[in-house]
Amino acid sequence: MTYALRKLGLFVLTLWAAVTLNFILPRLMPGSPTDAAIAKLSQNGPVTQATRDAIAAQLGVPGGNLWDQYVHYLHQVVTFDFGVSYTFYPQSVSELVGQAFPYTIVLLGIVTIVAFAVGTLLGVLAAWKRNTWLDSLPTLTGTFASTFPYFWTALLLLFFLGYVLHWFPTSGAYGPTATPGFTWDFMTDVAYHAVLPAVTILITSIGGWILGMRNAMINTLGDDYVTFAEANGLKGRTVAMKYAARNAILPNLTGFGLALGGVVGGSILVEQVFGYPGIGFLLFNAVIGQDYPLMQALFLLITVSVLVANFLVDILYGVLDPRTRR
């Protein structure tokens, strides 16, 4: 119980620091949302101060000193009301995030879990069958695939499977004639459009899970308790999974917590290449448009997701390895 409360206190302190940093960072960027809006809307000479003030009021740009803006921002965080987006005016930030969030969760969340599960199992197999083809094949293939950047793999798949062979759509989350809703036709259309982005992320990420688990597993297989279990005549699968893999998975579990928390941030480059309307695509447009409310909401969402995922992993660490509770 003390271990969990200590981790909870650290989580709350880190969350406050992240929220404060989230408020400061956008304001360190050069320019202002008003300047960005004027650059888009007006190309006919200088703009008067009255016009600037009117545009700022229409966008809801916070006024007052920095402390007043910080207090207003904390109130927005508590009430989950981040105002109107400057880039996608007059849509609200909550509406935009609510539209993009499910696509990123479904795409990246499922792919991250699948990549972790498959990569970890292949790493266990490679370590247990080391110096055989069952070791060489997954490690070499995973290493080769992980050397390619996200965007390069995405472009290759997009060109060959999208433009050349016409097997999959090249952009968007669903077809132009589809009607969004919880229907079988719409869900299958969304899954069909998500194939190329999902395969891109799976190919470029699974190698890290394989190599990480294999190396940790090989170190664990040399420990005395594994040798003792083998000497007692236990089955190889039992020794590998219940004894060696349970302890070797802890470093991979830490990486999985970071990856799972980072799911909300989306893979910005992949979503840009495929025009996939997820959180990463929305964040890119928010940064380009100096959209403070949208940036702050997205950064906060990403930060909280990472913190929550790491908090859960810390608690799971205590369950899997009681030594960490000391």
Automatic annotation (TrEMBL):
InterPro entries: MetI-like (IPR000515), MetI-like_sf (IPR035906). GO terms for cellular component: plasma membrane. Keywords: Membrane, Transmembrane, Transmembrane helix, Transport. The chain crosses the membrane at residues 100-128, 149-170, 190-211, 249-274, 294-320. CDD domains: TM_PBP2. It is found in: Cell membrane; Membrane. Residues 101-313 form the ABC transmembrane type-1 domain. One of its GO terms (biological process) is transmembrane transport. It is a multi-pass membrane protein. Coiled coil: none annotated. Belongs to the binding-protein-dependent transport system permease family. This is Peptide ABC transporter permease. It comes from Leifsonia poae.
